[in-house]
Design a protein that fits this description.
This protein is of the alpha+beta class. The chain has one domain: BirA Bifunctional Protein, domain 2 (2-Layer Sandwich), CATH 3.30.930. The protein contains seven helices and seven strands, in the order ααββββααββαβαα. It has a seven-stranded antiparallel sheet.
Amino acid sequence: MLFTGFSHEDFNVFKIDTLDERMNAIQTQIRPKFEALSYHFAPTLSTLCGDEMHVHIAKHARRTVNPPKDTWVAFANSKRGYKMLPHFQIGLWETHVFVWFAVIYEAPIKADFGKLLNSNIKEIKKRIPDSYVWSKDHTKPDVEKMSELSEAQLASLFDRLEHVKKAEILCGINVSKEEAVNLSGEDWISLIEQTFKTLTPLYELTKKTYA
């Protein structure tokens, strides 16, 4: 399956007003692209992470009124689901593409992972590039730039993950719509692969929570 990149039409899906029409556009316009990306990145991530990674394309099944504002494909080491597990995502908002490593609020390892992040904060500061971003809520497009975070501010994000019940942590890249449409399929494969390689140490750190 060949991934050819993202187009203006992909982002325009989120301008469709009604739930059924937007869901249909997501399924016909964007889902095939996620499937093409999955074909490449499920085995890639399995090799990087040392775990068999399974594909979960967002279904938005619980929505009955409000159309989804973003959509994604996730990769986790279980066929049954991903939300309770450390996972990777590729997805779109109307404004940008995101590539994440994520531990969201359903994950039982959250508090232990927050503690581990703090104890490895100097190494994380070295490993995560300034161009990367952090998020504390996967349902919102807001991010904090690595380049603008002091060690104390980063520690505050990690403390929140440890102590706040609904806290989340996501790290990765955002690519603006304007830049995204100018990247070829090959450009995207290279960029996402490099991003996942950069984020794999965070996944490796989660394994210590199970020890």
